[in-house]
Amino acid sequence: MAKPSSLLDTRVIYCGDNLEQLKKLPDACVDLIYIDPPFNSNRNYEVFWGETKEKRSFEDRHESTQAYIEFMRPRCVELARVLKKTGSFYYHCDWHASHYVKVMLDQIMGEDNFQNEIVWKRSSAHSDAKQGSKHFGRVHDVLFLYSGGSDDYTWNQLYLPLSDEYVESHYTNVEPDGRRFRWDNLTGPGGAAKGNAFYEVLGVKKFWRYSPENMAELIADGRVAIPPKGKIPAIKRYLDKSLGVPLQSVWDDLPPVNSQAKESLGYPTQKPLQLLERIIRTSSNENDIVLDAFCGCGTALVAAQNLNRQWIGIDVSPTACTVMAKRLRSVCKLPESEKLWQIGRGFVVRDLPWTEKQLRTIPPFEFENWAVIALGGIPNKTQVGDMGIDGRIFPVGSEPSAKKDEQLDFMDDWYPVQVKQMDKVGRPDIDMFEAAMMRAKRKKGFFVGFDFSSDAMLEIGRFFKREHISIVALTVREILDETIAHRLA
Ligand SMILES: C[S@@+](CC[C@H](N)C(=O)[O-])C[C@H]1O[C@@H](n2cnc3c(N)ncnc32)[C@H](O)[C@@H]1O
């Protein structure tokens, strides 16, 4: 696929705060923006694997709606700057802050450019409307759509199939050859003022919505006649020529991502691919540039790639960036390679915190995810009750067994990983891991830290002699230098 702009790199995931990353993009360079920022809610929206450490920082930052809007405003200003005049901007949110978001976006994008408030019915029943609660179930999200300023913004009208009931009640007539049709009005309401012409059709003088020439063609085609039960000529609309019903602003036909669905990555805020595909089909064309500046596990990027669009993704979480890169590689079969990207194929991830210094400053939860994923393991989905184990490595050849209770319940062939974002892992840390390994009946485990005290190393040796259980101590430096492959075996 050719590069659409020499000023802009596409098929790139940028890891970092979008406020900083967006400043690197030129003005008016993208065709479609979709964002699904963490909401101002106490739902675990920002949480990657659904646990508490990130939630706390989220709550601190988004203490009030005002704080949320203040957080979003400069980011939306940047997004408005990079959007082309012919582009579109979708902001995905829900009842927690949607009314404040609308006011903010009117100010930034311009009230006149507001096109739609889309209601996406994401579930049929919701746990916030339990028996006894005194409000209606909150089952929908809201998407605000703004155009970039030009009346000529990209718009590909989508249609939904006609329902069986509609076909039965409206397409009640059948031609001798079996074609179903309905009669439709031909008269021109509003008369001459609306540009309709006055003339005679099949003996009836009226204002008609077609010119005499076009009407003559329709009559010659056999499309115009006086219906059996009427007196005024009408036009036949054939079912096989119908495009369907133009898509309206209430979307209740797209189910959320079910935890058992093939596309599910177990990420609580993951949006369905179908939702993103609908948005991208409507508001962009092939090779246009799609930007998601809060891209989570990369649903918009996968949808854009599937539909032959160019894309740019930004996310502040290194874990999210790593997971979405894996998704693009496995689902879209897109290679992650600087070399291929240079010649217009594949994609790249930029600005991941690769240095020890950066790894010391990322949140502990991110650090644990980074370390476990770097070892080829799977981080724990929850951190509560992890019993001193942050992730698991499955030796090559072992397969996860069937899912139980939504938690991955793996077969018994795995190695525990413990991660500490500390300079010197000490003897007490090793003691705790030993206890966890004994409880889990493991023969081998991995411990990641920036460095290990000599006491810690001695204890690892003693533990092996005593229990024949081995703990492999890995430093961050070793992981970064990729010198650990032989020790993982
Ligand atoms: C609700 S999730 C997006 C989910 C996504 N639509 C999907 O389907 O996977 C929000 C994402 O925004 C990211 N995020 C939060 N603050 C950010 C910031 N300042 N810059 C970039 N990304 C940010 C979070 O890390 C999280 O992955």
Describe the structure.
It contains 16 helices and 22 strands. Strands 14-4-5-3-2-15-16-1-17 form a nine-stranded mixed beta sheet, sandwiched between helices. Strands 18-19-20-21-22 form a five-stranded mixed beta sheet, with helices on both faces. Helix 3 packs parallel to helix 4. The relative contact order is 0.11. It has three domains: 248 residues, 3-Layer(aba) Sandwich (Rossmann fold); 83 residues, no CATH class; 133 residues, Trna Endonuclease, Chain: A, domain 1. The chain has 489 residues and is an alpha/beta fold.
What Rg do the Cα atoms give? Answer: 29 Å
What ligand species are in this complex? S-adenosylmethionine
Number of strands: 22
Count up the helices.
Answer: 16
Return the CATH architecture of the largest domain: 3-Layer(aba) Sandwich
First-last Cα distance: 39 Å
Biggest sheet overview: 9 strands, mixed
Q: Strand order, biggest sheet?
A: 14-4-5-3-2-15-16-1-17
Shape: elongated
The CATH superfamily of the largest domain bears the name Vaccinia Virus protein VP39
| CATH topology name of the largest domain | Rossmann fold
* Category from helices, strands and their pairing: alpha/beta
Strand content bin = 15-25%
Catalogue the unreliable spans.
Answer: 40-58, 397-411
The CATH class of the largest domain, by name, is Alpha Beta
Count of the domains: 3
For the residues shown, what is the average pLDDT?
Answer: 86
